[in-house]
Every structure is written in C-alpha cells, then in structure tokens.
Amino acid sequence: MATQGMHSSKFCLHPAGDTPSACRLFDALVSLCVPVIVSDHIELPFEDVIDYSNISIFVDTSKAVQPGFLTSMLRRVSSERILEYQREIQRVKHYFEYEDPNGPVNQIWRQVSLKAPLIKLLINRNKRLVERGTNETDCSCICSTPSEISTVG
Q: pTM for this structure?
C-alpha cells in the first residue's frame, strides 16, 4: 500500500532519524517519487556517484517543523522542476533496485572496497605514531626546543 502511494506521489518524506539506507528512500527513488529529506546532517548511500541535490529536496529540521512550511515550499516547486528531478532519478534509480546486477548490493561492496585500504592505512599509521605529552617537542616538524624558540624571538 505504501509503495502504491509512492508511485502516485510527487514527493516522499524522508525524515531525520531514518537510517541512510532506509527502505523508504530506496522505495521512493524506485517509484520516481522525489525524496524530501528533512535532516541537518545525513550520510546518504552512494554519494560518491550520486549528486543528491539533483534528485532530492533538502530541508533544515528547524524549518520543517514550522507549521505549513513544508506544504507551502513543495507547492512552489514547478511541474517542470519535478520532471527534472524525476528524469535524474530515472537515470540513477538502478543503484536502488536489488534485481539490478549493479544495484545496491554491488554498490555497497564497491564502497567497502574503497574504504578498506583507507582504514588499513589509518590503522598502520596509528601503530607507528609516538604518543607525546603536551610539553614535548615533536622533532619531525620542529628542530628546536621550546626554550630555544623563546630566546630567538
């Protein structure tokens, strides 16, 4: 029933607190329903390949809770602009269709493969870093002691 509603709607609400990979967002995009994302800070799936500003409307949480704000804002979106959103959604919706071989499962593994080397780098870097107190000089970037610096100035 919710999916039928999305298919017949122009906009689908994606409130703050929803997980980035929530089915609601995937279902909205597959239905060509423009997501209205109400969040101040959200990490969205596949942002390295999808520009969400072309397929979604973002609303600050503080504005969204003002009575009548969302309704009046969405009424001002032209039919032409809605079609632009939908054309762009059509172009990227395969990322959200599980039956597509390059769909979300493949994209998740691709993102993991991109993050894994960075995680390994950070782990290895942290193993070699020497912990220093706040009063100790790090000779890798300064070749003088704090007392030598104060006498120079």
A: 0.66
